């Protein structure tokens, strides 16, 4: 990891600000960490634990990935996604909403799923998985809640941990871990890390950005 550590340090030397970084080798257990527990606004990274909780409930028989939800005009919010552009009344399955939440970072799909399962189930499962700093406090694009201090949060260590859990299907039947990896691998937002990788590499990932 030492050559990689030097390369990361060289890149960071050109910037100012705060960063939290965790790079983990799943095969060897080697890790590179810089401020791993520093807390940041989660932005769209919070959608990863939401997806995990949906899969956990599906595996437990508490919900069906094939259950249908209807989109309504009052659910439409700005930011990323395609559902806000569609006519009210169209129906999508939970599986389709999870897919849109991840591959297009669809905020409306995310809010529909939050309304379906609630914030506390996400937070409880995150804590049970060992995520120490990840909290879902509000729906996406709820600026009033954000101004009131209700911000979603996470850390690099927590995100590294939940991706490791997804990679090994920890706490879930293997099929659900594989489904999450498949969805993450179909990510359409490719202007960050994937942009710098050689062609032919499939990266299962999720971005999160605050303007």
What would you say this structure looks like, in words?
This protein has helices spanning 2-12, 47-59, 94-103, 107-117, 119-129, 143-147, 156-168, 174-185; strands spanning 21-24, 31-34, 39-41, 68-70, 91-93, 153-155. The chain has 211 residues and is mainly alpha-helical. The protein has two domains: 1-36, no CATH class; 38-189, Beta-lactamase (3-Layer(aba) Sandwich), CATH 3.40.710.10. The strands form three sheets. Strands 1-2 form a two-stranded antiparallel sheet. A two-stranded antiparallel sheet has the order 3-6. Strands 4-5 form a two-stranded antiparallel ribbon. Helix 2 (47-59) packs across helix 4 and helix 3 crosses helix 4 (107-117). It is globular.
Give the topology.
Layout: H1 2-12, E1 21-24, E2 31-34, E3 39-41, H2 47-59, E4 68-70, E5 91-93, H3 94-103, H4 107-117, H5 119-129, H6 143-147, E6 153-155, H7 156-168, H8 174-185
Antiparallel strand pairs: 1-2, 3-6, 4-5
Helix pairs in contact: 2-4, 2-5, 3-4, 7-8
CATH superfamily grouping of the largest domain: DD-peptidase/beta-lactamase superfamily
The average pLDDT score comes to 96
Task: Give me the Rg, rounded.
Answer: 17 Å
Question: How many separate domains?
Answer: 2
CATH topology call of the largest domain: Beta-lactamase
CATH architecture of the largest domain: 3-Layer(aba) Sandwich
């Amino acid at each position: 990891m030492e050559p990689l550590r030097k390369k990361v340090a060289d890149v960071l030397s050109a910037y100012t600000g705060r960063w939290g970084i965790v790079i983990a080798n799943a095969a060897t257990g080697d890790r590179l960490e810089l401020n791993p527990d520093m807390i940041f606004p989660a932005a769209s990274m919070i959608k990863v634990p939401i997806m995990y909780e949906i899969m956990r409930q599906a595996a437990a028989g508490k919900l069906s990935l094939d259950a249908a939800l209807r989109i309504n005009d009052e659910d439409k919010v700005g930011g990323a996604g395609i559902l806000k552009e569609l006519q009210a009344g169209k129906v999508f399955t939970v599986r389709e909403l999870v897919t849109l939440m991840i591959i297009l970072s669809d905020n409306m799909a995310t809010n529909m799923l939050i309304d379906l399962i609630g914030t506390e189930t996400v937070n409880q499962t995150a804590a049970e998985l060992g995520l120490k700093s990840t909290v879902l406090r509000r729906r996406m694009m709820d600026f009033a809640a954000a101004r009131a201090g209700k911000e979603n949060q996470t850390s690099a260590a927590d995100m590294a941990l939940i991706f490791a859990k997804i990679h090994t299907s920890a706490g879930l039947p293997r099929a659900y871990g594989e489904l999450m990896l498949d969805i993450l691998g179909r990510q359409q937002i490719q202007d960050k890390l994937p942009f710098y990788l050689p062609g032919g590499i499939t990266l299962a990932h999720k971005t999160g950005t605050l303007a």
